[in-house]
Amino acid sequence: MSDTVIRIAETTAEILALYNPIIGTINLIVREVRDIYKNAESNKEICLIMYNRVDSAEHAMNTLMRNIEGSEDEEIFENFRKKEYYLAFERFKNLLTNIKEYTNKVSKFDRYKQIINATEVKNKYQKLTKEYDVCIKDLQFTMIMSSEAARVKEAKKVDKAIENTEEALKKLDNTDQKLDMIAKNIDFLIKERSLDTQVKKIDPSELYEPPYKDTNFRKNVFKKIYKGEHDEHEVACKPIDSQNLGTQLTILKKLKSKYILQFYGLSYADTSEVMVSEWAEKGTLKELYHKHDIPWTRKIQIIRDICRGIVFLRRVNIFHHDLRCENVFLSLI
């Protein structure tokens, strides 16, 4: 039987020269899978399972290679001299490439939707994990071979992750449809240009003074109570000349997001034309910084909400062009 074994290397130097390129590629793939897991938007649990598997295999592989260097134990070298073992390493490298591609695809909502359905996601996961177990056995990485109980536990986590992602995608699909409609309306409005009549006109009688007047003014902006169709709102009234703002105001009326101040329409107050929009009780971000010591946890939330507002605008093909602390408004500290 030993006569049929094809030997491809003899000395330690030959072995290292032969295997190091493959090992370098495997180490790179593992780092890429780790980064994919860290930045995953969806199926975080599946990405973690895949990362744990490739990370464990990398650790076993690197430990094995360290044992070769400087060792005089012939048994350690024997497998590395065989062509079959080298080919098993090649298969392992190709498998990790497939795992990386799969993990990358399921980690992002837009890429996940390119996979036909949840069944395909699970089938691909099962195929990759079976191939992984075979490779681990062929390479004799026995210290990381998983038990049947561990595999069952992982499978349940995968099912739960797929279920959560499917639910999230349903919500995203509804949101995408709404955003696509907003974007189409805005594109149409920009092309048409004749927009002044499309801005809602609010009767001045629908605006009245709030009961407390101590914080009702902010530079040239003043607070009113707007009696809307369904309930009352605290609104900011800012004097403007709307003649040259038809396009911007009409577009602003189309934007519906909790991260964008809502624009209600145009009205008159004290003989001045005003734009009526949502009142931000705490003022601008710049004012807030001067008045309060903002904890880091709140700063992170503010940054997150600013980013969400920017993403919303970008999804409907709008660029802000003047993003600064004076233009970021807050209702809560």
UniProtKB/TrEMBL annotation:
- Keyword Kinase attributed: yes
One of the Pfam families matching this protein, by short name = PK_Tyr_Ser-Thr
Its keywords, alphabetically, are: Kinase, Transferase
Q: Where is the signal peptide?
A: none
Q: Which residues form the Protein kinase domain?
A: 138-333
Name the SUPFAM superfamilies on file. Protein kinase-like (PK-like)
Any one GO biological process: cell surface receptor signaling pathway
User: What are the protein's GO molecular function terms?
Assistant: ATP binding; protein serine/threonine kinase activity
Task: Give the protein's recorded name.
Answer: Kinase-like domain-containing protein
